Amino acid sequence: MTQRFPHPYTLQDAEEWVANARRNPRATHRVIEVDGEFAGGVGFERLDVERDGVAIFGYWLGRSFWGRGIATEAAAMLSEYALTVAGVRRLEASVIEQNTASARVLEKCGFVLEGRLRSLYQDRDGAVCDAFLYAKLKDD
């Protein structure tokens, strides 16, 4: 996980996330709910100008929900919506090198590894890390 994502994740963090999502007309965010409990989030944010039709895609899931296929199901559903209904032609997602489980989620959803982004992130301990860039196209 990158430093951008708060840890521990508090109620105030969740409220700010919802408020920001409501203010951003280029973003589509959804809550992941499991058995009536808030489990995580999934979303995409459209880019513009020369990258119109492209969106940055991402998701997160609380640790207690890992290993059950929940992230894969949520990512598959929203990526399909983005590419077939919302008019996005390309989704991009970057994954910190150490997060092999997240990379596997993207692969199971049809995202293709396009390259390594060197020294892109700092992890929570401040270590500089590479990332992998994945993409899924409307016509894939």
Q: What does the overall shape look like?
A: globular
Instruction: From the 3D structure, determine the CATH topology.
Output: Aminopeptidase
At the fourth level of CATH, the homologous superfamily is: Gcn5-related N-acetyltransferase (GNAT)
- Uncertain parts: none
User: What string gives the helices and strands in order?
Assistant: HEEEHEHEE
CATH architecture: 3-Layer(aba) Sandwich
Give me the side-by-side strand order of the main sheet. 1-2-3-4-6-5
Q: Structural class from helices and strands?
A: alpha+beta
Number of helices: 3
Radius of gyration: 15 Å
Count of individual domains: 1
Distance between the termini: 28 Å
Largest sheet: 6 strands, mixed
Average predicted local confidence, pLDDT:
90
Number of β-strand runs: 6
Brief synopsis:
The chain has 140 residues and is α+β, with helices and mostly antiparallel strands. The protein contains three helices and six strands; from the N terminus they run H-E-E-E-H-E-H-E-E. A six-stranded mixed beta sheet has the order 1-2-3-4-6-5, covered by helices on one side.
Question: What does it look like?
Answer:
With 140 residues, this protein is of the alpha+beta class. The protein has one domain (11-137): Gcn5-related N-acetyltransferase (GNAT) (Aminopeptidase), CATH 3.40.630. The chain has 3 helices and 6 strands. Helix 2 (70-84) packs across helix 3. It is globular and about 35 Å long. It starts with 10 loop residues before the first helix and ends with a strand.
